[in-house]
């Protein structure tokens, strides 16, 4: 069985974080969890909640890595624009991923239904939105972590089994 090395960019979307007013705890949590599936975080960045900036970075990193994970900006606030930016750059949506995250989240809090997170494909890259809190990141990512290698394998057109 061939081992696959997944390359990753983690983008934290936070106005306060981008100004240095809040420590990023979610980005490191993502990196730690992805290490469990053999993924390598090559890029991390903290950006303001600016749709144009987010779109530019998603496009840039989709040329460089297999997986882009965002954290933050998935709620209902006026500055929560991460899903909107993501929808504008992906070529194909994967609705089952955020559906699974919301369904699992509903077991803990009804507020999970307010998440607007999306997932999709741009070129050969999977893009996945996660909430901003470290707890929500862990809860949501744990739901889909085991399907990420298989999803990337299929996005890249591989017929080899590297996920299992």
Gist of the model:
This protein has 164 residues and is α/β, with parallel strands linked by helices. It has a single domain, classed as 3-Layer(aba) Sandwich (Molybdenum Cofactor Biosythetic Enzyme, Chain A). The protein has helices spanning 15-18, 26-35, 51-62, 82-89, 96-106, 134-144, 148-155; strands spanning 7-13, 40-47, 67-71, 92-93, 119-122, 125-130.
Number of strands: 6
Number of helices: 7
Return the domain count. 1
Binned strand content:
15-25%
Structural class: alpha/beta
Major sheet details: 6 strands, mixed
Helical proportion?
25-40%
Low-confidence stretches: none
CATH class: Alpha Beta
The CATH homologous superfamily name equals MoaB/Mog-like domain
Measured between the Cα atoms of the first and last residue, the distance is 8 Å
> What does the average pLDDT come to?
94
CA-atom Rg in angstroms: 15 Å
The CATH architecture can be named as: 3-Layer(aba) Sandwich
CATH topology: Molybdenum Cofactor Biosythetic Enzyme, Chain A
**Spatial shape:** globular
């Amino acid at each position: 069985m061939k081992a696959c090395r997944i390359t990753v960019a983690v983008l934290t979307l936070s106005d306060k974080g981008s100004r240095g007013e809040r420590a990023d705890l979610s980005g490191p949590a993502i990196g730690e969890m992805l290490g469990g599936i053999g993924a390598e975080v090559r890029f991390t960045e903290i950006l303001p909640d600016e749709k144009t900036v987010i779109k530019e970075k998603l496009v840039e990193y989709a040329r460089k890595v297999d997986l882009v994970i965002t954290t933050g900006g998935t709620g209902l606030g006026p500055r929560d624009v991460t899903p909107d930016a993501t929808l504008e750059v992906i070529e194909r949506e994967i609705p089952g991923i955020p559906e699974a995250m919301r369904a699992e989240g509903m077991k803990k809090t009804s507020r999970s239904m307010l998440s607007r997170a999306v997932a999709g494909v741009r070129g050969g890259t999977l893009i996945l939105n996660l909430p901003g809190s470290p707890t929500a990141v862990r809860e949501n990512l744990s739901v889909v972590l085991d399907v990420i290698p298989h999803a990337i394998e299929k996005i890249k057109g591989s017929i080899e089994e590297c996920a299992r």
